[in-house]
Structures are given as structure tokens and as C-alpha cells.
Amino acid sequence: MGEVEDSDRIANIDDRYHDLKKIYGKTFVNKLQSSKLFLVGAGALGCEFLKFFALTGLGSVGDGKV
Predict the structure, then answer these.
(1) Is residue 64 part of a domain?
(2) Number of domains in the chain
(3) What's the CA gap between 8 and 14, in Å, rounded?
(4) Which tens digits make up the pLDDT trace of 20-66?
(5) What is the Cα–Cα distance from 63 to 59, expressed in whole angstroms?
(6) Is residue 2 scored above 70 in pLDDT?
(7) What is the pLDDT of residue 13?
(8) Residue 6 binned pLDDT confidence (cut-offs 50, 70, 90)
């Protein structure tokens, strides 16, 4: 495997979603963050879904909305 440059390492430190991008890829995470979603009900399960959406940044970029 190739060496990671220090500039890449430093640039990724400030990225909240760096680990998510490493696992799923940048393209998928960008689609996830720019998606639009409508959630009905925030009870027991809905509350957990909303927490997951917030942690993954769903709907947080561009035209994305929750």
C-alpha cells in the first residue's frame, strides 16, 4: 500500500464523516448527505432513526432535507 501524505492526514482530521467515507466511499456518503427524506412519527423507533440520520449527516448538504 502507498504512503499517505501528511497533508491528506491533516485534511481528514477535521472531517466529521471521515470514518463513514472510509467504509462506504465518498460517492455514497455524498449521495446520503444530499438526499431528501420525510419521516412520519418520532416515537420509539423514529427517535432512533432521527439520531442515526444526524450522525450520518443525512440531508445536510446542498438541497438535502429531513
Answers:
(1) no
(2) 1
(3) 11
(4) 888 888 899 889 999 998 988 888 898 999 898 888 889 888 888 88
(5) 8
(6) no
(7) 63
(8) low
Q: What's the whole-number mean pLDDT along residues 7-28?
A: 77
Report the distance separating Cα 56 and Cα 22, nearest Å: 13
- The C-alpha cell 446542498 sits at 62
Look up residue 1 and give its three cell numbers.
500500500
Residue in this structure with the C-alpha cell 427524506, named with its chain if needed: 37
SS3 33: helix
d(CA 66, CA 59): 6
Structural domain for 49, as ranges: 6-56
Q: Confirm if 29 and 21 have CB atoms less than 8 A apart.
A: yes
Helices and strands in the chain: count of H runs, count of E runs? 4, 0
Nearby residues of 46 by Cβ (< 8 Å), 6 or more positions away: 39, 40
